[in-house]
Automatic annotation (TrEMBL):
Protein name: gibberellin 2beta-dioxygenase
Gene3D superfamilies (alphabetical): B-lactam Antibiotic, Isopenicillin N Synthase, Chain
Phylogenetic classification of the source organism: Eukaryota, Viridiplantae, Streptophyta, Embryophyta, Tracheophyta
InterPro entries from the UniProt entry: DIOX_N, IPNS-like_FE2OG_OXY, IPNS-like_sf, Iron_ascorbate_oxido_reductase, Oxoglu/Fe-dep_dioxygenase_dom
Keywords: Dioxygenase, Iron, Metal-binding, Oxidoreductase
Enzyme Commission (EC) number: 1.14.11.13
Residues covered by the Fe2OG dioxygenase domain: 176-282
Reactions this protein catalyses: gibberellin A1 + 2-oxoglutarate + O2 = gibberellin A8 + succinate + CO2
Pfam name, any one: 2OG-FeII_Oxy
Length: 336
């Protein structure tokens, strides 16, 4: 028996074996938000991948660059300064630990509340401890990304031929929308160079529980998605574009027609990765169930009805890789 050793610094982290280098996947759908066929292409991409790249999105590059600079400034602070913004509750600064159920990753992050109707002391403290430039950068970016997310969801509704066209976007527009925003920093891990054929998990495989997620990162690779055939492929980074993920709630609302995408992030040995994600969620009291117009006559709903609060609570009790929707699926046969 041969025991592979690894640097002590990585003892508590997940390493996966890679049989061969994973080349960048060239099949990621790319959609121009201004394309007259965008509504059709969005539906097709969400059906096949649960994921697509969005270009010509309308979010000013100056907003993106300013927020990335502020994020890097924060993550470059001394650890003692960053720790003042933690521990997460779930909002605030976190490092290495992801959630409270034992998941860890080669990551540090800031999770911020985006709903002014909900008071998060951690979010307020983070803004107080940092410059007004930081608060302004976050607010400008989120406002622009929300506007783009609303448009994507309305085009999706058009493509699915459901009315009214704001049936999805209204949930994110709602003043009680339970949405949040996350800044991730994956530091370089030089120790990986000594581990031939091994890759370090930055953020373990999972699906996002919300309706949609809007991701943007710098030009460091690391993001991977899982295709329908269970193959993991690397997503080529593009710092000028956004990536849209279908979330679990949207999978339920479309009765499984659109599938939430499993994804993960791998650490890099030399370069740091910075990403920013807007998670668009409905109000906590919103009942999540398949939209009637997407359930054909004679077709059964695949899911039990539940509130977003019930699903969110269940998701926070699970591990990252758990199939969270399993608890909310209807059984194949129902006793009378």
């Amino acid at each position: 028996m041969v025991v592979l050793s690894q640097p002590a610094a990585l003892d508590h982290y997940s390493l996966i074996k890679t049989c061969k280098p994973t080349s960048a996947f060239t099949g990621i759908p790319v959609i121009d938000l201004r394309d007259p066929e965008a509504k059709t292409l969005i539906v097709k991409s969400c059906e096949e991948f649960g994921f697509f790249k969005l270009v010509n999105h309308g979010v000013p590059m100056e907003f993106i660059a300013r927020l990335e600079a502020e994020a890097i400034r924060f993550f470059n602070l001394p650890q003692s300064e960053k720790d003042k913004a933690g521990p997460p509750d779930p909002f605030g600064y976190g490092s290495k630990r992801i959630g409270s159920n034992g998941d860890v990753g080669w990551i540090e992050y800031l999770l911020l509340n985006t709903n002014p109707q909900v008071t998060s002391l951690k979010t307020l403290n983070i803004f107080r401890q940092n410059s007004e430039i930081f608060r302004s950068a976050v607010n400008d970016y989120i406002t622009a990304v929300k506007r783009m997310a609303f448009e994507v969801l309305e085009l999706l509704a058009d493509g699915l031929k459901i009315e009214p066209r704001n049936v999805l976007s209204r949930l994110l527009r709602d003043e009680k929308s339970d949405s949040c925003f996350r800044l991730n920093h994956y530091p370089p891990c030089p120790e990986l160079q000594a581990l031939s054929g091994r890759t370090l998990i930055g953020f373990g495989e999972h699906t996002d529980p919300q309706i949609i997620s809007v991701l943007r990162s710098n030009n460091t690779s690391g993001l991977q998605i899982c295709l329908r055939d269970e193959t993991w492929v690397s997503v080529p980074p593009d710092q000028t574009s956004f990536f849209i993920n279908v979330g679990d709630a949207l999978q339920v609302m479309t009765n499984g027609r659109l599938r939430s995408v499993r994804h993960r992030v791998l650490a890099d040995s030399l370069r740091s990765r910075v990403s920013m994600i807007y998670f668009g969620g409905p109000p906590l009291s919103e009942k999540i169930r398949p939209l009637p117009s997407l359930v054909a006559e004679g077709e059964e709903s695949l899911y039990k009805e539940f509130t977003w609060w019930e699903y969110k609570t269940s998701a926070y009790k699970s591990r990252l890789a758990d199939y969270r929707l399993g608890l909310f699926e209807k059984t194949a046969t129902t006793s009378q």
